[in-house]
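Before the break, one more example. Copy the sequence into your notebook; we will annotate it together after we see the structure.
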Amino acid sequence: MSLPRRLVPGRTHSVTRRTARRCFFLAPREEVNRIVLYTLGVALSRHDLALHAFMAESTHHHLVVSDGDERSCLSDALGSFHSLTARALNAFYGRGENLWATGSYDNVEIHDVPTLEEQLLYTWSNPVKDGLVERPEDWPSVKFLPEDFGRTITVPRPESAFFGGLRPDDWEPGFAPAREALRRARREERRRARSGRQDRDRARPGARPPKQPAPRPDRRERDRRRLPASVTFEVVPPPGYDHMTLDEVRAHFRRLLDARVEQIRAERRAQGLTRVLGVQAVLAEDPRDSAGDTFPTFGRNPRLACRDQARRVALLAELVSWRSTYRAVFLAWRGGEREVVFPLGAYGHPRHHGARVVAATGPPSFV
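Here is what the structure looks like once it is written out:
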């Protein structure tokens, strides 16, 4: 049995996921940005999830969100976002199979304000840390920075994107090299079909080709799309700053972000790294290529974050106890007992099998 993922309603999380084989599927092309922004908006509009920050890099994304207060919707919202994005980008690149690396999804519980600030700054400054651009504002992908707090965004559905279902006969990938490869394949298929018919006609001199059905000009194709024509969502200020006005929160995090960017640039100069890769070099790379080795690091994979050491030790002990309780209840459920009650934060069995779960007594502690 793998370790269960705890999802307590109201908890704030830092979430990340990377692409399969570390390919550049999220590179900031215009069509890719429209797809990512729309699918993120669909997930947020469908579920009670508060978005605080987001940054999409070429091979992965980061976001900081707060879960729903009534029940956890983090898994449903991110599942919707990732699945819709995978369908649309696979169609855009003319490929199949996994877009996201298996097992790369990771969420970390945030338990205090200093840790929240660190996670937000890490999310925003990631393109600078990775040597892509000089400032976060220069990175032309989908991103939400401190100035976006309180901003309401309406995103239209990308008309050229394909999100699933039956593809029309004239469908083509949006990515130019993939589109040209498909056209070559179709031309070759038509050539072989013509060659086959010619061989058949030579073998049967008196045979006539089969009669094609006449087109029906009055036929109308039904629009089977279920996704909305547009979605609206808001970038919400993070918890713990209710004593500040919106402008004060924006200014506070802008100061922190500017200081973090200067720190990163100073560290890079000390290492002799005086130049950045730049957006044009990023876009010149084939998005189907890999950024490098995918061998696992076997490093720590934290499930919670808290900068206060004493509190972090207590939280880890609480998590260990929660897992033990969950396992005992799970084994009883598997044995046929349906009156057992799962601990608060259990997700799978209450969500999919109607199992009972301990009710929340109030919002989780956040200091």
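Residues 12-162+227-306 form a domain with the Alpha-Beta Plaits fold (CATH 3.30.70.1290). The chain is about 40% helix and 10% strand. Try to locate both features in your own notes.
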